[in-house]
Design a protein that fits this description.
Layout (H helix, E strand, L loop, with lengths): L4 H7 L20 E4 L2 E4 L6 E5 L18 H17 L4 E4 L9 H11 L2 E3 L1 E2 L13 H4 L2 H14 L10 E5 L7 H17 L3 E4 L3 H13 L7 E4 L8 H9 L2 E4 L7 H13 L6 E3 L21 H12 L4 H16 L9
Parallel strand pairs: 3-4, 4-5, 6-7, 7-8, 8-9, 9-10, 10-11
Antiparallel strand pairs: 1-2
Length: 343
């Protein structure tokens, strides 16, 4: 008989991950991810939420300014939610708010210290929403120049801090890739080849996702370095199989208490197709919004632990399946290593 949910989650031992490198001749080494407090071993990630937000400011790239929020007020609002999910068994939270949308490295570092959670932040630019959140230089600079900016954050820290990014966050619009979207994808691929940081692209439908996979392959990057973010927006699930079998990560990351059955069905499909090992799950929750009273409505991060996992257990997902979703896949997806195509 399965243990109670919380006892089960808290009792799962760390999983030791070794490389199964895509490039020939790759030697086993200690695998790491980069948190806002520095590198940690991947097996220290524990149960991980791979796509969440703490603060997001939708004012736009032209007007974004950290003076629009007070860090102490944000902490007062957000910290109880982080403490709550930690009690549910979460150890690591990946914050997907990119630059020019409210990324605040110092805020994340403080919240990591206060909550005891590992928090991972990013480099990269968000090209969705009709490019509202792109800085002017993104339109004029080359993909290699943009990559140099992102690599510099990985080398030197974000905006003069000691905080370094643990992945690359980009975004593209829903249709076929525009020229600016292609540039962002190419810049992300170039950054990956120099840093080993995984590319998480806010995408949605399969059409741009499959284009992105082809594009990074042309740059010499294995699809294992690519996360198809918001794949739950694609209604034809056969595209999940296509992307997963190419090696990409399928991220269904809009979980809430009302759509648990849908997520159980999607995960059951992916398990049946033997793609569960390429699947990531999260809430896309949080969202302290500057400019709204009290930061607006903030959605917590616990539905995966207290709703989805019990529902999966009822559908005969094994303990190993649960570990795959909550631990192994996040570790493999966010491990810092260069993933090149075999020649």
């Amino acid at each position: 008989m399965l243990n109670s949910r919380r006892t089960f989650l808290l009792s799962i031992p760390g999983i030791v991950i070794t490389l199964n490198g895509f490039a020939s001749g790759q030697k086993e080494r200690k695998s790491q991810v980069i948190t806002v407090k520095g590198p940690i071993a991947t097996d220290a990630m524990g149960n991980t939420l791979i796509h969440e937000h703490i603060l997001v400011d939708f004012i736009g790239a032209k007007e974004i300014n950290p003076n629009r929020w007070n860090r102490k007020e944000v902490i007062k609002k957000v910290l109880p939610y982080l403490e709550e999910v930690k009690k549910e068994g979460c150890h690591t939270l990946v914050d997907c708010t990119p630059n020019y949308l409210g990324r605040d490295a110092i805020l994340l570092q403080w919240l990591s210290e206060l909550s005891g959670l590992n928090i991972i932040t990013n480099t990269g630019y968000y090209g969705g929403s009709d490019n509202k959140f792109l800085p002017e230089h993104a339109f004029t600079e080359s993909s290699s120049s943009l990559a140099e900016r992102w690599i510099a954050e990985w080398k030197n820290g974000i905006e003069g801090t000691s905080v370094k990014p643990g992945f690359i966050k980009i975004s593209v619009n829903a249709g076929p890739l525009s020229e600016i979207s292609k540039k962002l994808v190419q810049a992300a691929a170039l950054t990956h080849l120099q840093t080993g940081l995984t590319i998480a692209s806010h995408t949605g439908p399969a059409t741009p996702a499959l284009e992105e996979i082809d594009l990074i392959k042309r740059e010499g990057v294995h699809p294992g370095a690519f996360i198809w973010v918001h794949a739950q927006n694609e209604t034809d699930w056969k595209h999940y199989v296509t992307a997963a079998r190419a090696g990409a990560w399928i991220s269904i990351d809009g979980l809430n208490e009302e759509n648990v059955t849908d997520y159980v069905n999607r995960l059951s499909f992916l398990k049946k197709e033997k793609c569960l090992h390429q699947t990531l799950v999260s809430h896309d929750a949080g969202w302290y919004e500057p400019g709204k009273p009290g930061g607006g409505d903030f959605r917590g991060y616990t539905a995966l632990f207290n709703k989805l996992l019990p529902a999966l257990q009822q559908q005969n997902f094994s303990n190993d399946d649960i570990r795959q979703i909550t631990q192994k896949n996040p570790q493999n997806a966010f491990e810092v290593r260069v993933r090149k195509l075999k020649k």
